[in-house]
Write a structure and sequence with these properties.
single chain; 4 domains; 19 helices; Methyltransferase, Cobalt-precorrin-4 Transmethylase, Domain 2; alpha/beta; Cobalt-precorrin-4 Transmethylase, domain 1; Helix Hairpins; 5-stranded mixed beta sheet
Length: 488
Amino acid sequence: MKKKIVVVGLGFGDETALPIGTVALFSRSEMIWLRTEKHPAVHWIREKGIPFQTFDEVYEMFSDFESVYQEIAQRLLQLTEMQEIVVYAVPGHPMVAERTVQLLRQLGPQYGVEIDIRGGGSFLDIAFARLGIDPIEGFMMVDGNSLRPEEINPRLHILIGQVYDRIVASDIKLTLMEVYPDDYEIHVVTALGIEGMETVHRLPLYELDRIDAFTDLTSIYIPPVSDEQILYRRFDYLTQIIAHLRSPEGCPWDRKQTHQSLLPYLIEEAYEFIEAVHNEDVDAMMDELGDVLLQVMLHAQIAKEEGVFDIHEVIQGLNAKMIRRHPHVFGEEHAETAEEVKQNWEEIKRKERQGEETSSILDEISKGLPVLLQAFEQHKKAAKVGFDWDKKEDVLLKVEEELAELRKAETKEEQEEEIGDLLFILTSVARMYEVHPEIALWKATQKFARRFRYLEDQARKTGRKLQEIPMEQLDEWWEESKQQEKGE
């Protein structure tokens, strides 16, 4: 006869919640094993003289629940070596929030043991009745010990189990506050369906860990939201907003946009974010990042409408790339420094591009980059294969050479060519000094704007137009603006 573990549930309350089949199984069993004695039905089991043993001692052996549950599962499987059928009883329903049963289902086939799951009244049954939950409206149950904000969908009825003390409740509160307003009403429920023990507390979220009402039978119920503003933090809500804007019932401007028409806005928003970073304006950074994300969402929605891809495929590809290009984090590779990480990243990119038809390493540079960045990237690519100056002084000499050639240039065409050469070589100077030319030039434009505005302000104070001020006076004011910046 095949070895078997029969798993039954003790229900949500006392013996009145025990299924008839479970009572019959107990009456003919030589021994039943209880995960814990802490259950209202155990008093009746003892009165009936049904022999039982518990695994309560295992809880004292380990500091974490996973180790406890692993030990219980192993002990049950070992018991099958001594008896063909082992009866194991757990609180509630065997398939609701019962980790030991999940482990038995995983390990049983490896040990040649059949895991026979029987019924048992779940505390979900009474929770649905007491709290007025219709699960067809959308329901999720989560473990309070491993709750993460990204798992929570506030549109659903949510029941959080394993809230056995105030420490767990405090962690849950902090997690929920990332999703719900601090004063959102929640329910703390204990021993639902157990006469004389049942309690239900309604309170605002911020008071969750201020009450002393937590036991092994405590759960938290969070009703679905009715205020749509609570959903504003959710990515899926943003996806719906963008799709609606592009729909026939949406916005005429958004509907007529294409990938090509949106490109100027993507560039503009990226530069506005750069400006916010340089200004160390965190509020502006948050706002501008939202504008950049808007452009991403619009492009993804347009692609979805064209049947090419959608935002979820964009995210899928990005996740895959991040994992693939970080083998030192998600794999077996090692990288101790940022430079090693960069080298690994470039090597992985190179392998990914193997098989692509390219006649030059310069083909890897995006044609959509501004020309300043294209020049910068060309120098970087060439340097990686050894086409580079040995030291900074050499490239500075090249700058002087290009300046001399510019001075000699006579025709417009020659002057244009030499100015182009000069600008091009300056991007290599930036690379040699480990300075990004785009950022350096942006800072220079900001500096010029500040000083020029100072000239305009000074001219206004004199009641004259800027063009009426002698150059000597403008130079003096310019120096004043420089000195003011140094004094700040």
